[in-house]
Design a protein that fits this description.
By secondary structure, the protein is of the alpha+beta class. The chain has helices at residues 5-10, 14-29, 62-68, 118-130, 164-167, 235-243, 255-261, 289-298, 301-308, 327-330, 343-346, 362-377, 392-396, 417-424, 438-448, 453-470; strands at residues 44-48, 76-78, 84-86, 89-94, 99-104, 143-147, 152-157, 198-204, 208-213, 226-231, 249-250, 266-279, 313-315, 352-357, 381-386, 402-408, 473-485, 490-491, 508-509. 29% of the residues lie in helices and 21% in strands. A hairpin with a 4-residue loop joins strand 4 and strand 5.
Length: 510
């Protein structure tokens, strides 16, 4: 039976209490982070849900942490409509089908005092292209960057890439100084070697990090002198730290805590995030399309929206939800679906392992409901629930039969093309479903070849239909974001549907 939400809210688990105590102690004891300052003189205290999984490497999900903390920047950044605008490049132009020229911002220095120039840009982009594993944003393209003088970078791609300016805004393609790169081409260290308004200081593993204001920043100087960041996986602990003012900003407030905190403390906004059930098509029970179809038929999205998300989510319509507003009008029916296995056949299968992570507090509860729905269909289910950093490698290696994850479909390029390529194609670098299907690869390749936005969107929806037809991923809900901060005392927090920004140069107390 689903755990009572009243009990869920009333009792703070022992582990959460310990995390909260740790967060409170560290935040209040950090240098300059106490209550002695006023207004913009105060350091920010921030609670993030996800700890670094790759030692702050810019080539994985840690790049998003660096971006959300305003540490790193790329040649471009995205406006609210997902269009590219100048950042470390002041302008750009296309030269034929596969080449672009970008003008590098002059009089800009890295946080270590060295000068930004075309050579440093080319070095960073080349390192990203050569990284292993390859950043998701480069799954569907290959780029070559060369310096042409001090101020111009020429970037060529193997195939025509109309999304290159948007692609270069991805945090994994941030520009770092020469000192960030090890001599042997190994670990990349962004601390002190980026260009953003805040400099990453000490990183204490998966526990905490410090930021200091970058006083040589080329743009507007940060209003806060720095920030003390805690990585607190338990959502209830984050909410309680916000309630007691042990933190100023807490990302991803649990739905169960939103009404308790009140409208002045929680800020809900639409997202491009889809929570889905990834089924392992490569081996095990769900290598059989009929079993995947049976799992899909077992899922009732409405129960999740009403019961787990308390109405603060949208019923799943496909891979792309309301956060991608053009998708609904172009959606077509899934193609090539198998007939679902009967319950009697399902009951003959071995136990399946259903996994999810604790960093998003609703997901373990989602997993409980999904387990109930699958078992009602005849599946025998074992749950595995841990911190995401402990699970990612196993999920990518296909060690789970089913994996529930929340995925931002616009995170990579502000266009779902990179998401479709990285998550569902044969060579995809984030292919948890292990899917390798020619109709999907063909549809994604066609979308990638189209420069016209409307035509590309239509082709992407054709790819969505093929992916849904494979039942490799069963959409569960489309999330809405709930970020936490006290609007009466904290200013300048970014509410970004693409999740790339949170703390900015304008974020401050008072």
């Amino acid at each position: 039976m689903l755990t009572s939400r009243r009990l869920h809210r009333a009792a703070l688990p022992l582990a959460a209490t310990a995390l909260l105590a740790t967060a409170a102690t560290a935040c209040t004891s950090s240098g300059g982070s106490g209550s002695g300052g006023t207004g913009g003189d105060q350091r920010l205290k921030v609670a993030l849900a996800f700890p670094p999984a790759q030692a702050m490497s810019p080539y994985g999900d840690d790049a998003v942490i660096l971006s959300r903390l305003a540490v790193v920047e790329g040649l471009t950044r995205l406006d609210e409509n997902g269009e590219a605008e100048p950042a470390l490049a002041t302008d750009w132009k296309r030269d034929g089908e596969t080449a672009w020229e970008f003008t590098v911002r002059g009089d800009t220095v890295f946080q270590d005092g060295t000068k930004l120039d075309a050579t440093s840009v080319a070095r960073s982009l080349t390192a990203a292209q050569k990284a292993s594993p390859k950043p998701r944003v480069l799954t569907d393209t290959t780029l070559t960057a060369t310096a042409e003088g001090a101020g111009t970078v020429r970037i060529t791609t193997k195939d025509a890439d109309p999304l290159l300016p948007q692609r270069l805004a991805n945090p994994s393609l941030s520009i770092l100084s020469a000192a960030a790169y090890g001599k042997d081409g190994g670990k990349v260290n962004p601390a002190g070697h980026a260009t953003g308004p805040f400099t990453l200081g000490k990183v204490n593993g998966a526990v905490s990090a410090t930021l200091e204001r970058n006083d040589t920043y080329w743009g507007a100087r940060a209003k806060a002198p720095g920030a003390d960041v805690k990585f607190v996986a338990d959502g209830t602990a984050r909410a309680n730290a916000l309630r007691t003012k042990d933190v100023d900003v807490a990302e991803y407030v649990p739905i169960s805590q939103a009404s308790l905190l009140g409208d002045g403390m929680v800020h809900e906004f639409p997202s491009a995030r889809t929570n889905g059930l990834s089924l392992n098509t490569g081996r095990g029970v769900f290598a059989d399309p009929a079993m995947r179809a049976a799992a899909r038929e077992a899922i009732d999205s409405g129960v999740l929206v009403d019961g787990v998300y308390e109405g603060r989510a949208d019923t799943a319509q496909g891979l792309l939800g309301p956060g991608v507003p053009w998708a609904a009008g172009l959606r077509t029916a899934p193609t090539g679906r198998a007939k679902a296995a009967a319950p009697a056949e399902v009951r003959k299968t071995r136990q399946i392992v259903l996994a999810t992570y604790t960093n998003r507090p609703e997901l373990p509860e989602v997993a409980t409901v999904v387990q109930q729905q699958l078992e009602k269909r005849g599946f025998t289910v074992k749950q595995v629930v841990r911190d995401y950093a402990q699970m990612e490698a196993d999920a990518l290696a296909g060690k789970y039969d089913a994996f529930i994850q929340a995925r931002n479909t616009l995170l990579d390029t502000a266009d779902p093309l990179s998401y479709l390529a990285s998550d569902f194609t044969c060579d995809g670098s984030f292919n948890i479903t292990q899917l390798c299907a020619k109709p999907v690869d063909t549809a994604v390749d066609k979308a990638a070849s189209l420069a016209d936005t409307d035509a590309r969107h239509q082709a992407e929806m054709t790819a969505e239909a093929a992916i849904l037809g494979s039942d490799a991923l069963v959409p569960l809900v489309h999330e809405r974001f709930v970020q936490g901060y006290d609007e009466t005392r904290v200013r300048g927090v970014a509410l970004d549907p693409m999740e790339r920004t949170l703390i900015t140069a304008d974020t401050r107390i008072g």
